[in-house]
Description:
By secondary structure, this protein is α+β, with helices and mostly antiparallel strands. It has helices at 38-48, 113-120, 136-149, 174-177, 187-202, 230-239, 260-263, 337-356; strands at residues 5-6, 11-16, 22-28, 65-69, 71-73, 79-81, 86-91, 154-162, 165-166, 209-216, 244-249, 267-269, 275-277, 285-286, 289-290, 295-301, 311-314, 320-323. It has a five-stranded antiparallel beta sheet with strand order 1-2-3-7-4, covered by helices on one side. A five-stranded antiparallel beta sheet has the order 9-8-10-16-11. Strands 5-6 form a two-stranded antiparallel sheet. The protein is globular, with a radius of gyration of 21 Å.
Amino acid sequence: MSFNSFGHLFRVTTFGESHGPAIGCVVDGCPPGIAISEAEIQSFLDKRRPGQNRFTTQRREPDQVTIMSGVMVDRDGVQKTTGTPIALVIQNVDQRSKDYDAIAQSYRPGHADFTYDVKYGLRDPRGGGRSSARETAMRVAAGAIARKVVPGLHVRGALVQMGPHAIDRSRWDWTAVDENPFFCPDREMARFYESYLDDIRRDGSSVGAVIEIIAEGVPAGIGAPLYGKLDSDIAAALMGINAVKGVEIGAGFAAAALRGEDNADEMRMGNDGRALFLSNNAGGILGGIATGQPVVARFAVKPTSSILTPRQSINSAGENVDIQTKGRHDPCVGIRAVPVGEAMVACVIADHVLRDRGQIGPRSAS
């Protein structure tokens, strides 16, 4: 199986399976001398960690990260990157592989079971093996390092829609995101999500979500106008997250309903001598290159495919079956996708900042 890496100069390779002994990643290309500790990485992993409340999978994984290489303690006692590959490992401690015995030969609708078997001639039914969202813990760990590569970079995300129920943007409050289990910036809607998701879970079903990621402090000028566009790389990174079925940048699909004069982000010179944009429909990216405005991206996460409600399918013998997926699963996998989306955007921006160092020209407007 190839394609276990992403990025160019800031490059991340992940390994491990959902029910294997451990998962891990190697981060290559991180510059030397950057202060980073296990505790800093752990703070982001704790946001994604399963089993923290009744609205996520009850699999009890501490997700305790260990730095295996690429970091050393300097003379002042500070852990810093050495410029060599950074290896990170998380032990799996709460696998319940027996939960999947009844469906070991059946293909779960909506999962990668069928396509894995078609491509490789085998598959790991224990939680999906390599296709499991368990792997995304390592993306979050890599994203913690990526944030340190770009001074002043601030990447944060929020759940802005669950099922058909979108937040009221007039009530957006970033402090609310840390006050509820949904990473929701609308306190009133977060209270509604509690009862809504309880009902979904009791029905043995699941629901999708829309996540919004906003990156501030993105240097103007990173990106490229053709095949290295910042927005296309962000879209690819977000689309590569498990269960993601759609990505948009800035106004996204809503831009199709606007007139040209409404969509174009007008400009004026600011008092500091820098370009001032009067709106941000472009999501901080024009022609594949960052404008210096906040980069805004949203992605849609489908409902969790592992549900108790029986579904029609087939098995590896070509027989028709009805399948019910038991075990511990997120009724809305989009909730824990928030820190994963943040990490992927951070990794792309760090990669582009490093790529940009070799092609900087005069920039009068930056």
